[in-house]
Amino acid sequence: MLVKFQQYRTIWPNSLPGNGLATVSIIDQTKLPHIFEIARIESLQQMIVAIKTMQVRGAPLIGAAAAYGLALAMQEEASDQHLQAAAAQLIQSRPTAVNLNWAVQRMLNRLSPLTGLNRIQAAWTEAARICDEDVLLNQAIGQHGLSLIEKAYQQPDQKKQFNILTHCNAGWLATVDFGTALAPIYAAHNAGINVHVWVDETRPRNQGASLTSWELAQHGVAHTIISDNAGGHLMQQGLVDMVIVGADRVSSAGDVCNKIGTYLKALAAFDNQVPFYAAVPSPTIDWVIVDGLTEIEIEQRHGDEVAYMQGLAADGSVQKVRVIPIESKTINPAFDVTPARLVTGIITEQGVFAPHQLAFSRHD
Ligand code: MRU
After folding, report:
1. Ligand 1 neighbour 200 (Cβ under 6 A)
2. Where are the alpha helices (DSSP H) in the chain?
3. What would the pLDDT profile of 188-213 be if each residue is shown by its tens digit?
4. Which residues contact 361 (CB under 8 A, 6 or more apart)?
5. What is the pLDDT of residues 75-115, one digit of tens each?
6. CB 3.0–4.6 Å: which of 39, 44, 256, 258 could bond 278 by disulfide?
């Protein structure tokens, strides 16, 4: 997608001049929207830190990052022992998004039978393939989501503006390119539909306010940032035509695990008869589990994310300020689960499926 009219992906490999070793470039998402900075990742350990600190984030992107993490690991030492140890460390770096585990298992299947230089080369090739496939999956999600939006937009009571509410960031920054929840929005905007996005700020890390808004602005999509508590009210006022969110893991029964706060939006959407969709590429579906509520591990992040907020200070520097009393405690669950009964449909690269029909999307 475009940043200042230049085409970018969120992650890409490059060679280090001199010693012939490859490195990986990422867009550092902890600095956005104030600073657009490319970070260079040179080792497995640096990639693990980038995933844990959310320099790279979003379920599909951390899958791609883990794949490149293994390529960097094999470049360091292409032994079986290092492969297994690197895979285990990457899987543990963030527990909820299933794409990470999916990408690591795929890399292990590809690399385990190989040795030496063949293993190293295959690691770089397979990681690049995972990235290219992610782009294609998201483009397909965009087209299926566009059909949904077109249908809803052409209703007799059509408004001049089609209002979509989204939570967190499931745009191109959360993937290799195009995004999941935002892919249909970009497709609709490009097709000339007058789409407007209500962007939930998404405390505590503000991925909506910082990242989704930045992406939409770069692409020229009309949007308004709202506080996390405003969505239900807007739905009651008839100001939301559709909710589209991404997901970090979807159970085989269609339960949607996504950024904390998604469940509350789904409840409000259900109460106001607003269609609620999750846009997910197939690697986000965990066919092994049925009950998302009991079977998905919810990542617990550091309380400082609740206690502090980051922003641009008057002197132009990015700073953190404490917003709660020093004596107060915090907890910080990063995700919640929206039960399938609240989900209108799941948009995958194969089409749009009611949660109870999700199995028809399976093509492996
Ligand atoms: O903690 P994050 O920012 O990695 O979580 C990502 C999300 O929850 C996104 O909202 C998204 O829906 C899943 S990634 C397409």
Report:
1. no
2. 44-52, 59-76, 80-93, 98-111, 116-153, 182-190, 207, 213-219, 231-236, 262-271, 292-295, 304-307
3. 999 999 999 999 999 999 999 999 99
4. 282, 285, 346, 348, 350, 351, 353
5. 999 999 999 999 999 999 999 999 999 999 999 999 999 99
6. 256
- pLDDT at position 159: 63
Q: What is the pLDDT of residue 19?
A: 66
Residue nearest to atom 6 of ligand 1 (CA): 58
With 60 as the cut, is the pLDDT of residue 158 above it? no
SS3 letters across 89-150: HHHHHCCCCHHHHHHHHHHHHHHCCCCHHHHHHHHHHHHHHHHHHHHHHHHHHHHHHHHHHH
Q: Which CATH superfamily is domain 2-133 in?
A: translation initiation factor eif-2b, domain 1 (1.20.120.420)
- Pinpoint the residues of the chain covered by CATH 3.40.50.10470: 157-361
Q: Give the pLDDT band (50/70/90) at residue 15.
A: confident
Provide CATH 1.20.120.420 ranges for the chain.
2-133
Distance 267 CA to ligand 1 centre (A): 19
Nearest ligand 1 atom to the CA of 207 is 3
